[in-house]
Amino acid sequence: MVESPTKAAALQSYLDGDWKVVATKGHIKDLPPKQYGIDFTNDFEPSYEWLKGKKTLFSNIRKLSKSSSHVYIASDPDREGEMIAEHISDELGDKKGNMFRIRLKEISKQEVISALKNPSVIDRQLVDSQVARRVIDRIFGFEISPFLWKYLGGSSLSAGRVQSTVLRWICEREAEIRNFIPEVYVSLKAKVSDKKENFELDYVLPKSKEKLNEKEAKSVLSKYGVSGKGKALPDTFLTLESIEEKEYKNYPPPPFTTAVLQETASRVFGFSGSHTMKIAQVLFEGKRMKNGEYQGLITYMRTDSTHVTDGKKKIALRFLNDKSPDLIRGVPTKGKEKLHSQGAHEAILPIDPYLTPDSLRSSLKPDEFKLYELIWQRFLESFLLPETGIERNYIFESEGERWNTKEKEGKSLGFKGFLGKEKLPADPRKGLKPGAKVSVSEWIWEDKKTSPPSRYTEGSLIQKMEKTGVGRPSTYSQTLVTLMKRKYVFQNQKKIGASALGEKVNDLLVERFDEIVGESFTKSMEEELDLLAGGQGARVKLIRSFYQRVLELKKLKPTLKKEKTKDKGKSIPQKGTRVCPTCNEGKVLAKFSKTGKTIYFCSRYPHCDYASYEE
Predict the structure, then answer these.
(1) Which residues are within 8 A (CB) of 585 and not within 5 positions of it... i.e. 6 or more apart?
(2) Does 605 participate in catalysis according to the annotation?
(3) Which SS3 state, helix, strand or coil, does residue 460 take?
(4) φ, ψ at 206 (rounded to 5°)
C-alpha cells in the first residue's frame, strides 16, 4: 500500500503478477473537522474518523488484504507517512502477524526489491511524536481561535501554532518598514583613465564614517578644485598607493534540502513553494519513460538533511570520472546538520546521475525539466573542486583622500566549470603597479537614501522557517498557503505583506499569547517533538504542559477593544509612529501597492497631501 496512484503504478510495474499495489490517496483518517476530537479525561487520546470517501476506498483494500498472504505498507518515509501506516495497521488488525512496514526513499526497482527483502515495523516513537503534534496543534486552534472571533468578529478567523509565528514575522517586518526613517547620503566616484581604458573608482570612507553626507562630499571635492559633480579640472591625477591581495576559495553548496530547493526555485524560476513541491512529488513518484517503464527520478523531497548515502556517492563519482575527472574533489559538500533535522535523513538527490536532464527532456514537462536539472546539477557539483582565485583591492590616493576598485583574477572555475557555461574572471587592472597615475575626467555624485528592510518573499520565509526550526519540511509551503487563504497576508511582485486583518490578528495573539506565538517557543516545541520521535520524553506530559499553559494565558484579559464589524483584510493598517514631515500633526501610514512598492502618506489625508512612493 502506497499513498499515490502514480507511485502505485510505478511499483506495480516493478513486481510480478503475484503482487497487487494499491493507493490510499494520502491520509485515511484525521481528527473531526468541527469537534475537538480529544479525550481530556483519558490522557488527551485523539479520536480519529474516516476522511470523506476513504471508508469506501479502504473497504476494497480490506478485501484485497484478506486474500493476500502478506501486506506491506509503503506510505511516505516521514511522520505523516508513519501515521498513515498506523491507521492502516489498526484497520487491518487481523493481518498483524503478516503485515510489514517498508520505507522507500526513492522509487526504483532496486530500492523496492531491497525494501521487501528487509521489511521493518511501524515506528511507535515516530507515531507518538506525530500524535502529539496533531493534538497540540488542535488544542492551539480550538482554544485560541475563539478569542479572535470574540474580539475581531467573524468565525472564519483561525490561529495555528506555526502559522501564527510566521504571521508575527511578517507583521514585525511590516512595522519596521512603516517606521523606517530614510537617511540621505552621497555616493562619490571618480571616472578615471589609465591610457588603455576608462574605469571608475569608489571613494573610500574614513574608518570613522559609515556614510558621506552632502557637506562632507563637497569638502572632499573642494580639494580637487571643484564644488560638485561634473568634469574634473585638467591635470587631476590619482596615484596608485597600494594593492591588497587575498585569495578566495568558494566551495560548491551542498545538495538540496526542502527549504533551500523551494527558495532557489523561487529565486531562479519564480516558482511558488507549493508549485515546487508538486513538481518534486511528480519527480519522486516517477515518470513513464520512452520504453514504457516508470522511473522515479529523485529521492524523497521532504527533508532537512544534506546527507548523501554511500551508494549515491559511488554512482556520482563514477559518472564524474567519465565526464569531468579533473574537477573531482571526492566528497560532497555537507551542510551543517541541525539539531531538529529529521524526515528522510537524506538530501534531495537524483536517483541516477546517468539520467541526465537532456536525456529526459522529451519525458518531462518544462517546469519538471527545470527543477530536475537544478537538483541534478546541484548534487553533482557538490562533489567538485572549489572556485579559486585572487581578489585585488587597488587603492589610489591624492590630497589625503583614498579611492579604490576591486577586481578578481580567477585561477580555477572549479565546480562552476562543470557545464562549461562560466568563464574564468580576468583582472583588467593587473598591469598597474604602485606609483602609477590615472587621470580623472569626471566626478560622479549620486544622492541616495537608505532603504527600509525588504519584505519577505515566499522563499526567504521558508528559509527562515528551516533556519529557526519553526515548522517542518512537510508544512513549509502549506503554512504560507493558509495565511494567504485566511487573508492575513497578501503577495505582490513576489513580496509578502501583512493585511490590516493580519496585523489585528497578530496584535491580539501577541498581547494575549505572546509566549506561545514566539519563535523561541515554537522552535523549542519542535525540538521536544523531535525528542519524542527519538524515544525521549513523554507524549502525555508534553501535551499536558502545553494545555495548562494555554489555559493560564486564557485567563488574562486583553486590552484590545472588541470590534463589531468584520474586517475583510482589505483596509490598510492604521498604525504609525512617525510624525508627518509636511503638516507635523498626522502620522505617517503605509500601504503595500499593486506594483509591490510601499506608499507612505499622512493620516490626515486629504487635509494633508504628503505622499512618498518608494521601493
Answers:
(1) 579, 604, 608
(2) no
(3) helix
(4) -60, 155
Angle formed by the axes of helices 519-533 and 124-152, nearest 10°: 150
Looking at residue 348, the DSSP 8-state letter turns out to be: B
Phi, psi of 440 (to 5 degrees): -95, 125
- Angle, vertex CA 602, rays to CA 600 and CA 605, nearest 5: 125
Contact 273/461 with Cβ under 8 angstroms? Answer: no
Q: CB within 8 A of 123, min separation 6: which ones?
A: 82, 101
The Cα 290–Cα 273 span in angstroms is 30
The residue count for the chain: 615
Q: Are 256 and 264 in contact (CB under 8 A)?
A: yes
At 576 the pLDDT is 52
Is 60 exceeded by the pLDDT of residue 542? Answer: yes
Cell, residue 120: 521493518
d(C-alpha 283, C-alpha 369), whole Å: 9
d(CA 258, CA 241): 49
CA dist., res. 153 & res. 563, Å (int) = 6
What is d(CA 298, CA 216) in angstroms, rounded to the nearest whole number?
Answer: 58
What is the Cα–Cα distance from 382 to 348, expressed in whole angstroms? 12
Residue with cell 527520478: 297
Query: pLDDT for 178-237, tens place per residue?
Result: 888 889 999 999 999 987 889 999 999 998 889 999 999 999 999 999 988 999 999 999
- For residue 164, give the C-alpha cell: 501564527
Q: Whole-angstrom distance between the N-terminal and C-terminal Cα of the chain?
A: 52
Continuous segment of H or E residues that includes residue 458: helix 458-468
Helix, strand or coil, per DSSP, at residue 280: helix
Instruction: Kindly tell me the burial class for residue 187, based on how many C-beta atoms sit within 10 Å of its own C-beta (0-12, 13-18, 19 or more).
Output: middle
Q: What are the CB-based long-range contacts (under 8 Å, 24+) for 360-366? A: 360/287, 360/297, 362/290, 363/287, 363/288, 363/289, 363/290, 364/287
pLDDT in tens, 330-388: 888 887 765 444 444 799 999 999 999 999 998 999 999 999 999 999 999 999 999 99
| The three three-digit cell numbers of residue 568, written as one number | 475583510
- Residue type at 585 in one-letter notation: E
Model pTM?
0.84
Grid coordinates representing 344 are: 528522510
Predicted pLDDT at 338: 56
Of the candidates 203, 300, 372, 456, the residue annotated as catalytic is: 300
